[in-house]
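User: quick one, fold this
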Amino acid sequence: MKTLFLKILLAVIETMGLASWFYTVGQRWMIEPRRPHDGWNAVRFRKRSSPILTILVAHRVNEAPDPFRGGLAPKLFQAQLEHLARFYRFYDLQEAVSLLWRGALPRNALVLTFDDGYRDNFDYAFPILCSVGVPATIFLTTGPLDDPEHSILWHDMLFDTFRSAPPQAMELDGRWFDLASLTDRQRALFAYRQHLRRFDATTWPSRIRELRKRLGLSPDDIIHGYEKLTWDQVHKMAAQGITFGAHTVTHPILTCCAPSTARQEIRASHEALRKALGEEPIAFAYPNGSRKDFNDSVIAMVRQAGFTCAVSTIAGTNHQTTDRYALRRIQFPCGTNPRQNSARLAWLMLNDAVSS
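Assistant:
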C-alpha cells in the first residue's frame, strides 16, 4: 500500500510541478513512526524541531556503468545535480556538519560524497561538479594512491570475478550457485561476500585469487575499469574546492580485522592524507558502512586517530543529536528521471529515511 501511495504521489508531484513545495515540506515536517494500534491509513505529521542534514553517497560516474562496476552515466549525473541544485544548497561536508552542531544549518542543505576514490571521479564527475558549482567530499582508500601498481582492491577483484567468470556452477559452503544469468551471478556474489566475513579480512585477497583460479580466471589478470585516483589528480581537485576524507588504506571491513589491523588502517589513512594535502583530514568513511561493519571499538579508533566525524551507509538523515561518528547517508538518486528521483529523495526526508 505504501509503495502504491508513493508512486501516485510522485506522479502527482511531477505532473503538477509541486517539487519545490514537497521539498519544503520534507525539510520542515516528518511522518511520525506508526504505533501498534494505528490503522492502515493513519498518518501523523510532526514539525521538525531543528534542521536536518542529508548526505548523499555515490561511488562512480562513467560512460559504461554495469551491475558490477556500478556508476552513473555522466549526462544523468549532471541532469540530476542541476535539478537538485534548483531546490537545495550544496555544502562541503565539514562546513555542513559544523553548522548542524551549532544549530545554524539552513533547511535546504545537502552534501554530496563519493567513496573509494575511483579514477572516473576525476575524469567525469569533477568537470560536472565544477560546471554546476557543487562541492563534494571524496573518501579515499589511500593504498592505491601510494602504490599505483596495486590499485585494484579486494572488492574490485571480487566484482570482476563474478562479472568475468565463464558460465558454470559454483559450490560454496555446501550450496550450489549457477553463474548463467546476471541475477545468478549477483546472488552468488552476495553469498560469497557473506562467506568472507567468517575469516580475517587480511586473508580476503588471497581467498579471492584462489576463487578466480577455481572459476577459470587467472589470479594475476590485469583488471581494467577499477583504476583509482592519483595524488596529482587529488591535488588538482583540491585546488578547485573538492575536499577529501579517509576510507582506510586497503578497504577492509573493520569489524572483520584484528583490532591492531583496524587501528593501523585508520591511522595510516589519516596520516597519508595529512602528508599529501598538508592539513588534518576531519572526516572518515567506514568501508561498506552498514551497522555490522563498525562498532563502538572502531568508533573509538576513528576518534583517537584525530577525525572529528565519520559517515556510514546506514540510510537516513542527520540531526543535532545524531552521533557525529555514525552519520547516515542516502544513496545518490540513480533513476533516469531527475524529477522523480528528487521527489523520492524528498519522500525519504519526510519519512526521516531511517532504516536498518
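User: anything notable?
Assistant: Residues 259-277 form the longest helix (19 residues).
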